[in-house]
């Protein structure tokens, strides 16, 4: 595991040591990240580092000018600064690297949209890639279906809320759009991919409590007994929230093992360094989805429980 640890430390060091976080984000990635993904040579690497240093200095000058006027930078100013930085990055690249750069930026933008799919209960392409190994062409089709489903759901919800429709009716409409999207996804890909997706959906549609492993089911039972909740309705709601947290935590543990294996194999097989960064961002996207859901679930629990049961949940690692 030493090569894996070394690679991760180098990645973290690269993020911390070079340009500011703002410049890294605006430029499409840190220097080390772009060096690996775009396969820059030494001369290009030196030029790119200078581009980032200049961008940082320019941003500081812009902020200083704004402060001197008692103002802050506008969105338009930041967009102009970002556009300028990305153009200077492109000026460093060879013609065959320009497409790779645009594709990398687009990949990260798409990863940033994956949370919306999870929020509306729609399988996302990143999870299907990592869990089922769907081919790129199949993932493109799935991505388009998921994007359209999110847009349709938002539009329908806005229309129904504007019309004063009850929450139950809105929920039914959303579930109908979700079901339609998953039906379309099931028709994508090869026969093998269709079978994998069908089996995946069997688990996807279960409740968190039904998806827990045996040890986590025992943990859920133990936790609920310790809470000693007398109100039946309250107990059922708390149990559902605790089960969801445990499931998201279990998913994160599975993802950590998957990421470790992926990075280790990338290093052992001496695959392109860009694959390390791709894996970090893809797995990181799913980590973010689960962590954001855990936070929301924990907030719900804290809002409905007294101090004593909260303390017990903290002791069990359910709350922090």
Gyration radius, in Å: 23 Å
Shape: globular
Q: Could you tell me how far the N terminus lies from the C terminus, measured between alpha carbons in angstroms? A: 30 Å
Helix/strand class: mainly alpha
Amount of beta strand: under 5%
| H/E element sequence | HHHHHHHHHHHHHHHH
Distinct helical segment count: 16
User: How many beta-strand runs?
Assistant: 0
Unreliable sequence segments: 1-17
Q: Could you tell me the mean pLDDT?
A: 91
Largest beta-sheet details = none
Question: Helix share of residues?
Answer: over 70%
Itemize the secondary structure elements and their pairings.
Elements: H1 2-17, H2 21-27, H3 31-38, H4 42-68, H5 75-92, H6 95-112, H7 114-119, H8 125-132, H9 136-162, H10 167-186, H11 191-204, H12 208-211, H13 214-227, H14 232-268, H15 274-304, H16 307-315
Explained architecture:
- By secondary structure, the chain is mainly alpha-helical.
- Helices cover about 80% and strands about 0% of the residues.
- The chain contains 16 helices and no strands.
- The protein has helices at about 1-15, 20-25, 30-40, 40-70, 75-90, 95-110, 115-120, 125-130, 135-160, 165-185, 190-205, 210, 215-225, 230-270, 275-305, 305-315.
- Helix 3 (about 30-40) packs across helix 15 (about 275-305) and helix 14 (about 230-270) runs antiparallel to helix 15 (about 275-305).
- The protein is globular, with a radius of gyration of 23 Å.
- The model is unreliable at about 1-15 (pLDDT under 50).
């Amino acid at each position: 595991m030493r090569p894996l640890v070394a690679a991760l430390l180098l990645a973290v060091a690269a993020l911390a040591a070079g340009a500011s976080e703002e410049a890294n984000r605006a430029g499409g990635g840190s220097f080390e990240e772009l060096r690996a993904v775009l396969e820059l040579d030494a001369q290009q690497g030196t030029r790119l580092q200078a581009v980032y240093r200049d961008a940082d200095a320019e941003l500081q000058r812009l902020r200083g000018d704004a402060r001197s006027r008692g103002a802050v930078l506008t969105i338009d100013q930041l967009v102009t600064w970002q556009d300028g930085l990305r153009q200077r990055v492109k000026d460093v690249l060879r013609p065959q690297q320009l497409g790779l750069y645009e594709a990398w930026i687009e990949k990260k933008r798409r990863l940033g949209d994956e949370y919306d799919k999870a929020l509306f209960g729609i399988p996302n392409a990143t999870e299907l890639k990592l869990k089922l190994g769907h081919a790129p062409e199949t993932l493109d089709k799935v991505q388009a279906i998921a994007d359209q489903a999110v847009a349709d759901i938002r539009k329908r919800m806005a229309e129904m809320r504007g019309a004063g429709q009850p929450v139950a009716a809105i929920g039914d409409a959303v579930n109908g759009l979700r079901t339609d999207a998953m039906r379309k996804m099931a028709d994508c890909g090869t026969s093998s991919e269709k079978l994998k997706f069908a089996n995946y959906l069997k688990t996807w549609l279960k409740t968190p409590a039904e998806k827990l492993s045996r040890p986590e089911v025992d943990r859920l039972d133990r936790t609920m007994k310790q809470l000693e909740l007398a109100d039946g309705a309250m107990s059922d709601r708390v149990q559902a929230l605790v089960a969801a947290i445990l499931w998201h935590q279990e998913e994160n543990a599975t993802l950590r093992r998957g990421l470790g294996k992926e990075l280790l194999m990338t290093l052992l097989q001496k695959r392109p360094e860009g694959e390390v960064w791709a894996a970090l961002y893809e797995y990181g996207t799913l980590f973010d989805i689960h962590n954001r859901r855990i936070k929301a679930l924990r907030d719900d629990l804290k809002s409905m429980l007294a101090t004593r049961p909260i303390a017990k949940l903290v002791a069990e690692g359910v709350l922090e």
